[in-house]
Specification:
Structural class: alpha/beta
Shape: globular
Number of strands: 8
Strand content: 25-35%
Number of helices: 7
Distance between the termini: 12 Å
Length: 205
């Protein structure tokens, strides 16, 4: 089982006058830029909030984004907000289960997700599907609220639930690694208050 570049960091600082629920986005944007700079096909796993659509379209203009969600309202909001991207065929919106994706194996250069893990009823299946549709050597970036987000009122979700989801996600990644070996590589684990970011890579062989 191969593991490399596994980093655990904690970032809290910044201007005290900045919104603590948004200060992390600048660093998250840098993570997307670093790991996804050469991708062409990106799957946004969970349209909710539309953050990934905005960031990917801004920093990786050559990328075509497919954003999926299991809630009609989230897709409707994205359709109204990003008409230009849709008309230029840079964005495709689809309604489907996040744990049973309707795509062929290895369809995307990267899979990215924000604000989705705590909504999933089956994290292992979500991770398995994300890995299945990612091309060999491709990147998976998972970002969600940590327990501090509850205290900062960034989300209505209770802190204990968010802590449990974070713990369960790490456990499920370890379980998947024990099954798949070098097919799943941990690139980075980061806590950027009030979120955490997991960067995974699908093995080339």
């Amino acid at each position: 089982m191969e593991e490399r570049k596994v980093i655990l960091t904690l970032h809290i600082g910044g201007n005290v006058y900045e919104d603590p629920c948004r200060i992390w986005i600048k660093e998250y944007r840098s993570i997307i830029t670093t790991f996804l700079k050469n991708v062409k096909e990106v799957l946004d796993l969970g349209t909710n909030g539309m953050l990934n659509i905005r960031l990917v379209s801004e920093v990786i203009p050559q990328a075509r984004i497919t954003s999926v969600d299991n809630v009609h309202k989230n897709l409707d909001l994205a359709m109204k907000e990003y008409r230009d991207l849709i008309s230029s065929r840079k964005l495709d919106l689809k309604l489907m289960s996040l744990e049973r994706l309707e795509f062929k194996d290895e369809s995307f250069d990267a899979v990215i997700s924000f604000n989705t893990l705590h909504r999933s009823k089956d994290i292992f299946s979500l991770l398995r599907e994300a890995l299945r549709v990612t091309k060999r050597g491709g990147i998976i970036i998972l970002c969600d609220w940590g327990p501090s987000a509850s205290f900062l009122k960034c989300t209505k979700e209770p802190a204990d639930k968010l802590a449990q989801i974070m713990s369960n996600t790490l456990v499920e990644i370890e379980r998947m690694q024990s099954i798949l070996g070098n097919e799943l590589i941990k690139e980075a684990i980061m806590v950027i208050t009030p979120v955490y970011v997991l960067v995974l890579r699908k093995g080339k062989e």
